[in-house]
Amino acid sequence: MPNSEKFNGTMTSNQFRAWRKAQGLRQKEAADLLGLKKRMIQYYEKGERDGKKVEIPKTVRLACYALSQGIADFDGTEISTLSEPEGQDSA
Fold first, then answer.
1. Would you say residue 14 has pLDDT above 50?
2. Is the separation of the CB atoms in 2 and 18 below 8 Å?
3. Domain, as residue range, for 48
4. What is the mean pLDDT of the chain?
5. Which residue of 6, 42, 47, 62 lies most exposed, with the fewest beta carbons within 10 A?
6. Rounded to whole angstroms, how far apart are CA atoms 54 and 32?
7. What is the pLDDT of residues 29-59, one digit of tens each?
8. Which burial class, exposed, middle or buried, applies to 18 when counting CB atoms under 10 A from its CB (0-12, 13-18, 19+)?
9. Alpha-carbon distance 88 to 53, whole Å?
10. pLDDT over 90 for what percent of the chain?
11. Does any domain span residue 89?
C-alpha cells in the first residue's frame, strides 16, 4: 500500500489498480483470479459505476491479499498456491 494513503478499512481505486499492476496482471487476468467479471475490475479501478461510488468489498480485498501472498485457493483445509497446477493439492 502506498504510504500516502493510510489504511482506513477500505481499499481505494488507486490502491486496487496498484495491487493489480504490482502482481503483473491484466484486468482480465485479475478478474479470473478473483472470480469476477472484467467489468467489475474496471469499476473498482475507476471507483464508480454509473456515477455512483463503488466500494471494493472486504472479500475482494482479502482475496487480493491472499493472491499477493501466493495463495490461489482455499477449500477450508488445504491451501492451493499459485505455483501448483490446478487440481493438485499442496503437500
1. yes
2. yes
3. 13-81
4. 88
5. 6
6. 20
7. 999 999 999 999 999 999 999 999 999 999 9
8. middle
9. 39
10. 78
11. no
Q: How many domains does the chain have?
A: 1
- Residue 1 domain flag: no
Please compute the mean of the pLDDT values over residues 17-38 and round it to a whole number: 98
- DSSP-based three-state secondary structure for 76: coil
* CA-derived radius of gyration, the chain: 14
Amino acid at 18: A
Amino acid at 70: G
Q: Which three cell numbers mark 9?
A: 478499512
Q: Distance between alpha carbon 42 and the CA centroid of its chain, in Å?
A: 12
pTM: 0.79
Q: Reply yes or no on whether the pLDDT at 91 is more than 70.
A: no
Using left for φ > 0, alpha for ψ between -120 and 50, and beta otherwise, residue 82 falls in alpha
